[in-house]
Amino acid sequence: MSAEYATFGLAPAMRAGGVLANGDYQVHRDFVDFIVDGRPLLFQLSDLDAVSPLASDVPPAIFTAQVQSLLLEAEAPLDGGRYVIYGCPECQSLECGAVTAVIEKDGDDYVWRDFAWQTDEHADLELNGYHGIGPFRFHGAEYRGALGSLLDADSGARRRVLLIGARVAVLAKLAAALRTIGIGADITQDASGVPADELRTYGAVAFGRAVGEQERAAVRQSFERAGVEVAYVDGLAPIIPLLVAQIEHALDRRAQEQRRLTRLVAADGEAGIEVTSTCRVRVTAYRLDRLYRTHAHEVFDGILEAGRHSVPLDPKSVKGESFLVARTSGSVLVEAMAR
């Protein structure tokens, strides 16, 4: 075969959930992405909102079966020796479309070839093939080692957040929104009595603006005594979609090079954005008026190529106390508008 050798690895990834400006919910999905020659394979597919079959929220038996399938220890699920590489993050149905490829062994090597977008049992390579991707040849030991390690790994991702604040109504709404997109949330005013084993289940702590420094320090001490490293979020404003986005960002523990959206600056009537690969970016402005009512404005929704970009902002959408949320399918950033 003519496939060139490529390195194979795995890395944690996520499809960012969130509460969108129109009130819709986007489900959060944690998954393991395929790293080919040091770069996420998903990034080579432009603006594709999809996850690999190696998702953290599938039952352990199904997760194990997916790993074994990629190791060719089970029969191919689709005709022609084809396997699903990325699928719909909401339902995983083939009818929604999926990226598939032929996976086969050649001696001790594994080869991925004939990538295609597929919506039924048969792939049309002429019409829907990804002609610029692959084929990839992976050394067998490297390939088996990476996938085999998943079967021994601790899959318990800490997708829970502890909410601490003075406005109980806001915390209740925030917890409900987080649970809707797949993130566990609990509310407390004092973490000192929480058992260490329970503290270890949290990946982040979010403080409301009214929480004083003494209270924050006590919470940090509780986690330090339990030997737990968590992300701390200082809530920017009592705006639910904004707070959800802050928490989503805090729970994202990927290295910078594994993210699509890497920079957001909000100043001088512009949003400065940097992306690492071509993708769709949506920017929403949230602001509080003098009566503390929330206003949301979609200020940008379009495809950006890799690099840095400046997006002009409507002065009406960012006057007063305002904030920007920028989203791609797998990343989210939040920034307060400089005044």
Count of all domains:
3
Q: pLDDT below 50 for ≥5 consecutive residues: which ranges? A: none
Secondary structural class:
alpha+beta
3D shape: globular
Tell how many strands the DSSP assignment holds.
21
Termini separation: 60 Å
Average pLDDT metric: 88
Q: What is the helix/strand order?
A: EEEEEEHEEEHEHEHEHEHEHEEEEEEE
Helical percent range? 10-25%
Protein name: Oxidoreductase
Labels describing this entry:
Immunoglobulin-like; five-stranded mixed β-sheet; four-stranded parallel β-sheet; single chain; Rossmann fold; Oxidoreductase; 7 helices; 339 residues
Structure report:
With 339 residues, the protein is of the alpha+beta class. It has three domains: 4-150; 158-253, Response regulator (Rossmann fold), CATH 3.40.50; 254-339, Immunoglobulin-like (Sandwich). Helix content is 20%, strand content 35%. It has helices spanning 60-70, 125-128, 140-150, 168-180, 196-199, 213-225, 240-251, and strands spanning 4-5, 8-15, 18-19, 25-26, 29-36, 39-40, 82-86, 98-106, 109-118, 136-138, 160-164, 184-187, 204-207, 231-234, 261-267, 270-275, 279-288, 294-304, 307-312, 321-327, 332-336. A hairpin with a 2-residue loop joins β8 and β9 (109-118). α4 packs across α7 (240-251). The longest helix is centred in the middle third of the chain and has 13 residues, at 168-180. The protein starts with a strand and ends with a strand. The relative contact order is 0.13. The model has no long low-confidence stretch (mean pLDDT 88).
